């Protein structure tokens, strides 16, 4: 399925387990309950240089399984990631702008330098993840502070 393109499709319950998905485009689709466990979004250039490529935008991935996926620097903007499984997933430097990000499992998830601007984030214990370099907007700060037990109120 390398370089496959899916636009405005219903891919719900598809099994992409261990599929070769490098360069895939999934746009404006319904992809609820899909199994992406160990799917390959990468291209290996050498032992020391591996990169991933996927554009999975404006799609509802609710209840999908992204266990053991490498989506570093991939575009997931505008998508719904509600009740998804992200165990041992790599979303470093991924574009998660305007997403609904509410995973149900995320042990070993890496989001270093991910872009979460304007994302609705919930069900995440920020103490369990490394948020180094993560990009957010001012209005999102309250969520992060409240998850640490700090109550934020206005200046007035």
Write the layout of secondary structure elements.
Elements: E1 5-7, E2 24-27, E3 42-46, E4 49-52, E5 54-57, E6 80-82, E7 100-102, E8 120-121, H1 141-147
Parallel strand pairs: 1-2, 2-5, 6-7, 7-8
Antiparallel strand pairs: 3-4
Describe this structure in words.
With 156 residues, the protein is mainly beta. It contains one helix and eight strands. The protein has one helix spanning 141-147; strands at residues 5-7, 24-27, 42-46, 49-52, 54-57, 80-82, 100-102, 120-121. The chain has a three-stranded parallel sheet, with no helix packed on it.
List keywords for this structure.
4% helix, three-stranded parallel sheet, 156 residues, globular
Overall geometry comes to: globular
Widest sheet, order of strands: 1-2-5
Q: How many H/I helical runs?
A: 1
Helix share of residues?
A: under 10%
> What's the pLDDT, averaged over the residues?
93
Order of helices and strands, N to C? Answer: EEEEEEEEH
Structural classification: mainly beta
Q: What is the beta-strand fraction?
A: 15-25%
